[in-house]
Amino acid sequence: MADRSGAALAVRGGARRPYGWLVFLGGGLLLVTLHQLVPAGAARDVIYVGVGVLGTVGVLVGIRLHQPQRRRAWFALAASQLAWVLADLVGTVQDAVAPTDAFPTAADVLYLAGYPLLGLCLFLLTKGRRPRRDVEGALDSLTVAVGLYLLCWVLLARPTLDESADSWLAAAVAAAYPLLDITIIAMLVALIITPGTHTAALRMIVIAIGLVIIADTAATALGLLSLGSTGPIDFIWLLSYLLIGAAALHPSMRTLSAVAPPGRPVFSRRRQISTAAAVLVAPGTLAVQHLLDVPPDIWAVVIASVVMFLLVVARMNVAIHQIGTADRRRDEAQAELAHQAAHDSLTGLPNRAQSLELLEGTLSRAQRSGAMIGLLFVDLDGFKAVNDTFGHSAGDDVLRTVGRRMQTVVRGGDVVGRLGGDEFVVLLEPVVDEESAVAVGERLIAEVSAPIRLSNGEDVTVGASVGVAISQDARTDADALLVEADTAAYRAKNRGRGRTEVFDAGLRRELQTRVDLEKGLRSALWQNQLQLRFQPVMDLTTRRPLGWEAVLHWSRPGVGVVAVPDFRPVAETTDLIFDLDAWALRRAALQIAEWEAAGFGGVRLSVRVSVRHLGRSRVLDDVRTALQASGTPAQQLMVQVSDLQLVDDPVVLDNLAQLRAGGTGISLDDFGAGHSSVRRLARLPIDAVKLDGTLLDHSSKAAEGLLELMVRGVQNFGLMTAVKGVRTEEDVDLLRRLGCGLGQGELFGGLVTDSEVLRQLAEAAVHS
Fold it and tell me: Pick from 265, 297, 319: which residue ends a domain?
């Protein structure tokens, strides 16, 4: 805990002093300038050593201030600077106390000790920036180092050894300087070409070490190593001290050794240039020596060339291996992507597109061989209840378990696929007859219906309704067979669920009828063949209409009137229901406006809207468009939804609430026809309830008592209450006795046209 707090303090401290490194660098440059202006002597020497001390202290302060990721690297850098500062101090004292031309001296020991420490710093920084074991980086660095060593040997080390032949120690130390410089250069190149961010701190370190190398090379070339630091070379060495300290004080030093971000190219342009330049050193050296008529150093060139050749070959092998690995990973990724594109991510089964593709291939083979294939459409029963009760994660558990169980039932060559939601298909290839396919369906139902243990420890049970379709001839295609199996599964659900149904001739006729109805309904919608008819909602006391219900009316050319129960369920299974509802809303709103123009304002009209439509955001736009186009007040339009369809879907309830907030009334129809709950009314955003006509039962006191409970229950929530299916005066008397003042049914007339509504409105106005 203490370490993390310290790091946080250091970061905040760095944030408070973002320009401290500039102050440091500016002050140091003043000292360096002063050093150049002060005459030779003690004061000049003190300033020289002081600048070195300043640079070393700057590194230590930067470590404390910024808490870098690789602290050991920075401590090694501080140690190298300290060694050189001590060497400067020893040399200065030696020149002042006992001047000598001897070489090497004690100062040289400290100077040479600073190089390994600087090399350790560069090694640790480079290691930190590498995201993995960087074999190629090491080979590239070694190649550059060999080229530099060759250049150093030819230009500096060999001539120095020749001039110091009288003393092997002097020769070794003299040669050590350029060789160590070359080592530092190689390690610096390794740091530069390692992928990673090039921060300001890194740039300053590179410049500082470059200045050290330039100064060392110049000193070596001029034979000044034993004479102390004088002239322009002093200026260069002092600048290196300052830049090292400024780099450590810069905030970017904290992330200088950070691992390179993924995706950065390993073999960058910098590596290409540096490696190519190193390889060209050997032939370039021979060419220059030949042009200058200097005896060539054959063995040095040969050895360096062989080593670089071996390093380049090794680098090529690494590159070839990396290319092979990249190709293999690419192929694996492509295979994985192809699998993901063709399979359901939850169950691992073939998805809809892949299932249809497999079905098409199977049908093609069956057509050539003359075999029959079977397709089973499996629709889970009770799955939505699991989702609503235990959540979507529980639903996922169920789907995964069902997928595994279904695979255990079928044969090895059969295919189980998931179409989406709670729908699966099973492809049987081949199948002997319908009975064998039905037998598979029954086994699937038994296996799926076994209790399922959820991940939270709960046990749940779902069922399955199975539809079977058999390919009978070569003309069957995949889409048609899927529709046939789906239709059979739909009948299995309608006949009680948990059973298997076969797509037979009767279903084929029903399917053809449904297809024909859907086609005709689409045509009627766009050719303006639809109309609205109206039925009044009556005040049972005054016998005057308090509102009207709009009902779709379709007079199909060549067929006649098509009843709503015949065509609306067909529309409910397709997206056609959205357009149908939108048309009814627009026409109803326009009708209200027409009655308003005729002098009968305030008429309230209700329109049936599908729950599927209410589950889409477009229902809000459809209602808004209908009201705006007609200029009808929202309070005069009422959206009517069937209690048999309404579920506690948050989207549906939210859309109903938004419609109601905008002024549109919401009426719940068919209440009491199914498993209705009066308590449920408390959380529904509705204004009115229409009780189902089946509750009007005079056969017993118990039946009347049930109706009374329903009426009282609805009224207790402050909702307008009406009862449908009023046929007789006896029904009216019963409702009035129970306190229900509104009714709708045959007693008050059937569906009428808009002109008949106008007549009734005029008649009611005369008697008012």
Answer: 319
Among candidate residues 225, 250, 251, the one with its CA nearest the CA of residue 237: 225
* Higher per-residue confidence, 305 vs 572: 572
State the pLDDT confidence band at 396, using cuts at 50, 70 and 90: very high
Provide the β-strand partners of residue 531: 553
The token duo for 267 is 């073999």
Query: Which residue's entry shows tokens 């190219």?
Result: 265
Are 108 and 241 contained in the same domain?
yes
In a shared domain, residues 70 and 144: yes
Query: Which pairs with CB-CB distance under 8 Å and at least 24 residues apart come from 13-16?
Result: 13/65, 14/65, 14/66, 14/251, 14/254, 15/251
Total domain count, the chain: 3
Strand 415-420 to strand 374-381: parallel, antiparallel, or no bridges (unpaired)? unpaired
The pLDDT-based confidence of 164 (bands split at 50, 70, 90) is low
Q: What is the pLDDT of residues 215-227, one digit of tens each?
A: 887 776 665 444 4
Contact 500, 485 (CB under 8 A): no
**8 and 150 share a domain?**
yes
Q: Is residue 254 part of a domain?
A: yes
b (16+ CB within 10 A) / e for 323-361: eeeeeeeeeeeeeeeeeeeebbeebebbbeebbbebbee
d(Cα 144, Cα 189) in Å, to the nearest integer? 8
Rounded to the nearest 5 degrees, what angle is found at the Cα of 531, between the Cα atoms of 528 and 537?
160
Say whether pLDDT at 14 is over 50.
no
Given 503, 536, 553, the domain boundary residue is: 503
**Do the Cβ atoms of 218 and 33 come closer than 8 Å?**
no
- Cα–Cα distance between 218 and 364 in angstroms, integer? 84
Specify whether 445 is located in the same domain as 536: no
Please check whether residue 379 is in contact with residue 422, taking contact to mean a CB–CB distance below 8 angstroms: yes
Same domain, yes or no: 671 and 587: yes
80: three-class secondary structure by DSSP: helix
Answer yes or no: are the C-beta atoms of 743 and 545 closer than 8 Å.
no
Q: Which residue has the tokens 């304002």?
A: 601
- Biggest CA pair distance of the chain: 139
Phi, psi of 726 (to 5 degrees): -75, 120
Phi, psi of 120 (to 5 degrees): -60, -40
d(CA 343, CA 182): 58
At residue 579, the pLDDT reads 94
- Full residue range of the structural domain in which residue 257 is found: 2-319
The answer to whether residues 455 and 400 touch, using CB atoms and an 8 Å cutoff, is no
Say how many C-beta atoms besides its own lie within 10 A of residue 221's C-beta. Answer: 13
Give the pLDDT band of residue 3 (cuts 50, 70, 90). Answer: very low
Give the CATH number of the domain where residue 625 resides.
3.20.20.450
Residues 313, 371 within the same domain: no
- Alpha-carbon distance 234 to 237, whole Å? 5
Give the three-state DSSP class for 295: coil
Q: Is residue 722 part of a domain?
A: yes
Under a CB-based contact definition with an 8 Å cutoff, are residues 744 and 537 in contact? yes
Q: Are residues 44 and 97 in the same domain?
A: yes
3-state helix, strand, coil in the chain (%, to 5): 65, 10, 25
Q: The CATH number of the domain where 408 resides is what? A: 3.30.70.270
Statement to judge: residues 455 and 488 lie in one domain: yes
Residue 591 CA to residue 531 CA, distance in Å, equals 11
Which residues, listed in sequence order, are joined to residue 466 by a DSSP beta bridge? Answer: 378, 500
Rounded CA gap, 215 and 235, in Å?
A: 9
**Residue 313 lies inside a defined structural domain of this protein:** yes
CA 262 to chain centre: 18
- Specify the pairing of strand 415-420 against strand 545-556: unpaired
Residue 219 is assigned to a structural domain of this protein = yes
